[in-house]
Structure formats: C-alpha cells, structure tokens
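Project standup — Tuesday

K.O.: blocked on the structure for the chain from last sprint. Re-posting the sequence here as requested.
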Amino acid sequence: MTKQAPDELFLRFHGRIIDSLGIQMYQSPVAAIAELIANAWDADAKKVDVVLPDSLGNHAVITIADDGIGMTLEQCQNCYLDVGRNRRADEETDHSPGGRPLLGRKGIGKFAGFGIADIVHVKTISQETGECTEFELDLNELRGNKYVETSKFPIPITKKDGPDEERKLGHGTVITLKSLKMSQVRSPEAFARFMGRRFLINQQSDDFLISINDTPLFSDRDPTQFEFDFPNDYRDDEKPDGLEIREGWGIERLDDGREICWRIRFTKTPIEIDEFRGVSVFCGVKIAQTPFFFNLSGGLSGQHGQQYMTGMVKADYLDQLHADIITTERQRINWEHPEARTISNWGETRVKSLLGIWKERRTEGKIRLLKEKMVPFKDRLNNLAPSERKTVERAVQKIASIETLQNEQFFSLGEAILTAWEAGRLHELISNVSNVEQMNEGDLLEVLAEAQVLNALHVAEAVQAKLNLVEGLSERIKKHELENAVRDYISDNPWLLSPKWETFTKETSVKSLVESVAKEVGLDDMKDWRKRVDLVLSSGDQLLIIEFMRPGLTIDRDHLERFQEYVDILCERVEANTALGFNRVSGLLVADNLNRPPGTRALYKRLEESDMHCLEWGQLLGRAKAQWEEFFDILTQRVPDDARVQALRRQHKGNGNADD
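H.V.: unblocked you, prediction finished:
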C-alpha cells in the first residue's frame, strides 16, 4: 500500500479506468444520484436524505447525506480515491460489513456526480474513529494537464479533524454536488417515484429508508390500481409448463437450468410515465435493467397493453457470472451477450403471452360490464328478432375488443348501437361491424362519427317532440283549461316549463304537510285560490312548490301575501323536519294579470329575495319554448354535413317552429 504524509490525499489512477470513467452515462440526475445512494447502501446506511434545489442557479446544490459507517482519512485515500478499485476482490467478499450484498463492482461510481455537476464535495465522519474529513473533486481540474497516468494527483483537504469518541455518533457521509449542469429540476414527488423503482427491493429487504426533500420513495403502486396480477391470475390452461408460484411470485427455470423469479402486473389505467412501463430486472437487491419489454417490436397481440404493464424479474445469477454483462450505470444488460440469451428468450415469450392474455381479459371484462349495464335494456333486446339480437350483441363484442377504448366510451357506444338499431338507423353499418373479423381503430372512428351524429339526431328529435308538447300545452292554457289532467301531465314532465327542471320529479312525501299549511293560511277559504292547482317537485335536496292559478283570473295583493306566508311556513316546517332531507325550498306562482294589482312591485322583489318567483302563463311557456328552440338549434348545427339531421331541421322550420 502506498504511504502518504499524514495530511495528504491524492488520487491514484489505474490506467485501465481513464478511458472508461464514462461520466456521460450519468447525465440523468436519477442515474447519477442513484449511484451515490448505492454507495450509501454499501456503507450500511439505514437512512439517506437527498435534497434537491427549488430552482437552478449559480448557488444551487444537491446533497446526498447518509448515516453509513463513513471513512477515515486513510480509507478516503485507499478506498474512495482509489479509482477503479475492485472492492469485492480486495476484501474477498461481496457483502458489506453489515452483511448486505454489495451494489458496487467497478470502483468508479464516485464519479457519477460529475454527470450533473462540476464539483463534488465530500464530508465524512468515521463510525470507527470519529474522524471528520472534507475534500473536493473538481472536474475541470481532473480534465486539465495533470489528468495523466501518474501515481499521484493531489486533492486539497478542506477540513480534517482527528479521532473523537463523541463525534462517532454522527457517523456518515454527505456528498454535495456544486456547479450543477442540469436544465431542469424535477419535483421531489416525481423524483421519488423514479428513484423508488430502482431501490424497491433494497427498501423491502433491509432497514434502508430514502427520502427526497423529506418525501419518502414510493415503494410500489397502490395495489387497488392493479387489474391483473400474474402469475396469480393465470387460469389453469394458461400456466406455462414448470411454473411454480410462491407468495405471489412465479418461479421458473430457464433453458440453461438457471432459476428466475418474476411478477408482472397490469394497471387499470395507462401508466402515464413512460419510464415506469415495462419489466425491470434485478440481481439480488441491485437493478440491472430499467423497465423495458425485452426488446419486442410492433405487431404484437395486445400491444396496447404495454401502456398498462409493470413488472419485475429477479435473476440473481446475472451478477455472479464471470463476464460482467451489466452496464456501469446499472441501467442495461448487454442482451447480445451469450449469457443473457436464455433470459432474453424467456422474457420475449412471457411478455408476448401476457399481452395476449391481457387483451382477452380486457375484452371479456368489457363484455361483462356491458351486460351488467345493459340489464335495464334486457327487455329491449328481447323485443328484437333473434337474428337481430345476435347482430347487435356481436357488434358490441367487436367494439369491446378494441384495446384503446375506455369503459365509459364503450358503454356509451354500446347503448347508442342498441338505440340506433331500434330506431331503424345504421343497420348496414352495425351489421358490417358485427361481421368484421377484427375491429381496428379506423373502424372505430367511423362508428364514433356515426354515434355522434346519431346522438345529435336522437336528442334533436326528442327536443322537437318536447316543443310540440309545449305548444300543445300553450293552446290549452289559452282556452283557460287547468284541470287535474294538465297538472298531472306537468308533474310527470316538468321539463315542459323549463329545461332546468328536467331532473325534478313529483314529490309525495310532503303532500299532507302542503295541504295542512294551505288550510292554515286560509288559501282554501279564498274563492279564486280554490281555483288553483298545487304541485310539489324535488331534485336532490331542493323542494319546489308551484301554484298554478287558472288562466284568466286576476291576482291581488292579498293573494300574493298569502302565497308568501304559505311558502314561508312550508320552509320552516320542512327545515325543522330534517328526516325529509331537504335543505332548500323554492316557490313559484304562475298566474295571469300579475301587473294589474297596484303597489305590488316591492312585494314581488321581496318574494324573489326569498327564492319565490311569480310568472304569467305566457311568460313561462314562452320562455320554455325559447330555451328548447335554442337547444334544438345548437344540436342541429353541430353536424351541418349530415343529411338526416338537416332534414329534421328543415322539417322543423317548415312547421313554423323555428326561425331561419
């Protein structure tokens, strides 16, 4: 071992390492910092705290602090600054003093920081002696004229404190990266997700906690987000020969007899970050291959499933080979090497098979969900002739096989197809869909376009029917008709009076309360008020009290004041009875000649402030008609090129129901 002066440190270069420092491999902050965290693992650290800057600038730094065993001055020289040192060979073990399997292998990981910074500052306190040593490595200096094959390259010591028993308690190492060369800083949450995939097994196998700006690493996705979990979800006829399942993991032997352990899962929704999709390969606790798909190319059955796939393969033997087939930055395996061929072939086969199974399961799931959603339409399907029912069901199944289609889109399309068939539309298109051998996205786009037109046409026809009914109601009001049949019709179809009331339904739970309050305030004693019809509607927690006066009658101030008292008392009684579930009570009075009683303007204003409104019959029906006309115009203008929709529009205008 080379001797040095007590207060001297130097960098020893091994000729074989100068051309293979490869700091360009660590230009990703994740890769660079992961390497420094790996050093903390090898130092038996139980905790590693990474602090990222909020923003970049001249004074921005990144720190990686661990509570590992630290180093003495001598260890800084003979271990840390011995570039290319093979720790496993020198110490004749592949485990740390604490018994952990070592991650380091090539002895150049300490240079990873240079991938994202020009200066690496090291502060370390030895657990053994309590010594504290600080020094800096400057990349620009290393690249200078002194950067040649030589025995010594002086490294300036910025601080040196001798052994200290009390200082032992603060053992560990802090790496500070200065003069950062990064274009952006990821959020701590995003960085934690990226780092979590690399150190998943480390955190699960030992007391090793990593945090990024006090954000702990995400050890795995929420289990509730997984839709399929293999090998657990294999059916008996799908299991590969020789597969054994232990505690949720698949155990298989490759063609060369070596054993691997694996688990591959599919999420319910696409994995948003590309780097999280695919299968990682680990050797012990060390990642050897970041997520990928075993180099499979296009043309796969269920290829879209790659957006949902995440998994892990444990292949410990890869780190025990005589040949080193794992790249320096621990991100890739040399898949061209003969030793990697058997696991590569296995991975291609397994991923292809699982993507195909995923596609089949997704199709089955969509069909199952459709059947559940179509239960209310069972009678509608049964009303179709057997051959027609088979055509519709087959068309829906073909659409379900499209991998890119989300469930909500699928449900809407399935219902639209049934509605279209019942209405006698799109029979040819639906039959073609049912007979196509395999539905593709081009076919889907055509169906979606037709579905959009279909929806607009269907709703426009419904609106036209409503407009006709509003017109019919207007004619009856003009004739001063207000019998119970009209009241019942309005209660069953409140949208007749306004589109905003389409969600309201007739409420009977307060019938006796309404009648008793009307009697209490004396409405039934007034001659004209006896010629009224009351109606109670509800939607959610809102109660709507409507009083219809027979058309042609003139209302006076006394009527209005009694109406106000009537609704006020109802509000109090309803609010007091919390079991009814209503938190808001509104009132509406519909009558004629509202402007005739003198001195009522202020009263109308007070009523409105209490959410009680008064409208004349002509105003109410005129406003309802105008709102539905506007809705009809918007619908028909959405698809100006469809002949069917425009024919409906022309027919509507021809009947005098809309203006050009």
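K.O.: great, moving the ticket to review. The first helix runs from residue 29 to 42. Confidence is low (pLDDT under 50) at residues 14-20.
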